[in-house]
Amino acid sequence: MTQLKVGATLALAIALVCVAGPSFAHHSFSAEFDGNKCRDFTGTLTKIEWTNPHGFFYMDVKDPATGKVDNWSFQTYALITLRRAGTTRQMFLDNVGKELWVRGCVARNGKEHYAAAGSLKFASDGVLRQMGQLQD
Amino acid sequence: MSYRSRLSVACLSGLVVMALGARGAGAQNAQPKEPYTIKVMPPGGPPPRLADGHPDLSGHWLPNGAGQGVSGRFGVDPEARRQFDPKVTPEEPPSFQPWAVQKIKSMTPTEVELSKSSVNCMPRGLPAIWLQNPYSTYIVHNKDVMAQLYEVLNNWRLIHLDGRPVPKDPEPWFHGNSATHWDGDTLVVESVGFDDRTYVMPNGWFHSDELKVTERYSRPSMNYLMVQITVEDPKVLTKPWKSAPRRWTLGNGEVYEFYCTNNKEVEELNKLKEQEGAKK
After folding, report:
1. Chain A: residue nearest B269 by CA?
2. Nearest Cα to B220, choosing from B249, B181, B243?
3. Rounded alpha-carbon distances, angstroms, from residue B119 to A11, A24, B123, B149
4. Are residues B160 and B144 in contact, defined by beta-carbon separation less than 8 angstroms?
5. ipTM of the complex in this document
6. pLDDT of A33-84, one tens digit each?
7. d(CA B40, CA B55)
């Protein structure tokens, strides 16, 4: 996990430089998520919902200050976009119960523990993957 | 700058952004020395032809120059992202009637959001299906019909090639009522009779019941499909609007399922719309 944390900054930097997210997110991202409230998450993947048009995944995130663990849900790109980028449902299933790093932006409406995923790294392969429209 | 000018600029900007198909994918953001792994597709030789000699437009077409998905990926050559180069084939912004400018201007930001097919889950319809579609289109073409299978929203459309005219009293369909003819190696599809709930562009560009859309399809080589759209709508526009020829490239991957099922933020947007309405 430490390796993931160390890599997070680099990952973000790469994302900033190289990212090319689509202008055609299915949903109106700005209506639902706050692009000014993005942060890093590190935790354990607990569940996925591979649903049309967007996917969702869930992870347990431990608050470093309090030690409290919350289960966060993250919305992804349209499944088509993930598949064409080489990210599959099986990839997520293989990583349930394992560590991952996510950069995401929280919901505007104040819904707790809900965010849009921008990018992701599974600890198992360390590959930076684009997950959503907002690549801050 | 007048509103009209600003709107025109916005329209043009929107077109350019859509053509790029990527946020910030302009050359200024690209790393010149980046070893792109996803590049512009080569022409691929001459186009296939039907038995009658016309180009066969069949194929799995992707809205970019790469022949594969470019969204959500690293290492994509910006040249491969876009559907046209505005420097080579510039596209004039639409010229709206004054009342149309006022109508668009009166839309709140949330109303514009809610007008988008990507938000409200309505079919894109014609011509938006060719102008604002990030997903693939699978075309099956023979001498009698061209079937267009759109990945987005699992929509489809049959274009009959048997010379039939458009009906005298066309029903308002999302994809209109079409008549076709060949202009050399270009298939020309003229359509009238549209459902008025669709928008030409996701910036508030609405249309009237006088909308006429002309599509021109050509296949200059095996790997490229060119689609050029002309929009005539005398109630809304002061003159016809012509798109740049947009390229679609031949892909060999899967066509995926896409339905709009969990659009949760419409409720949020409607709340915002009510708040904006109260301020009007």
Report:
1. A31
2. B249
3. 30, 10, 11, 21
4. yes
5. 0.79
6. 888 999 999 999 999 999 988 999 999 999 888 999 999 999 999 999 999 9
7. 22
Among the partner residues A31, A79, A87, nearest to B265 by beta-carbon distance:
A31
CB proximity list for B111: less than 8 A, separation 6 or greater: B204, B273, B276
CA distances from A85 to B70, B149, B237 (A): 7, 21, 39
The string of pLDDT tens digits covering residues B49-108 is 999 999 999 999 999 999 999 999 999 999 999 999 999 999 999 999 999 999 999 999
Task: List Cβ neighbours of A87 (8 Å cut-off, separation of 6 or more).
Answer: A129, A131, B72
From chain A, the residues in CB contact with B265 under 8 A are 27-28, 31-32
Structure tokens at B100: 């149309």
Q: What predicted TM-score, i.e. pTM, was given to this entire model? A: 0.82
- Please give the average per-residue pLDDT across B118-145, as a whole number: 95
Distances (CA, A) of A113 to A7, A73, A110, B249: 23, 6, 9, 40
Neighbours of B238 (CB within 10 A): 13
Tokens of A20: 């090319």
Question: B31–A25: do the CB atoms touch at under 8 Å?
Answer: no
